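My current task is to audit a protein record that another person submitted. Thanks in advance; the entry in question is below:
***
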Amino acid sequence: MTRFPTAGHLASWAGTSPGSNESAGKVKSTRTRPGNPYLKGALGIAALSASRSKDTYFSVRYRRIASRRGPSKAVVAIEHSLLIAIWNMLQTGSIYNDPGKDYYTKRDPERAKKHALDQLRNLGYTVTLEPIPEPV
């Protein structure tokens, strides 16, 4: 892994980094680079498997991205995330620690609460919140 000083270098070489070609405020091509076809194929299979697994960080991340950007771009984003995680594991010698399906909820609980309340209000419900009494 000494050939790749950062995880971003590896992701770029593998062809999973999104392009960012913008000029004068006009966004041009955002296609990924061709990359290594064998690694790209293996990452694609791994990303699809990870996105279809239940109750994992990668499956939740896939669904969040796919809802906004579409399934194809979401798979490439999962490939990128997997490759970054692999580089970090190889670099540090540690094992993968999955953040879990509730990572985004735990990261910003106020945002999750506001989103849930907004959804209920949009469905026509009046919502009042009361804190749960602490057990004695």
Observations:
- The radius of gyration is 19 Å.
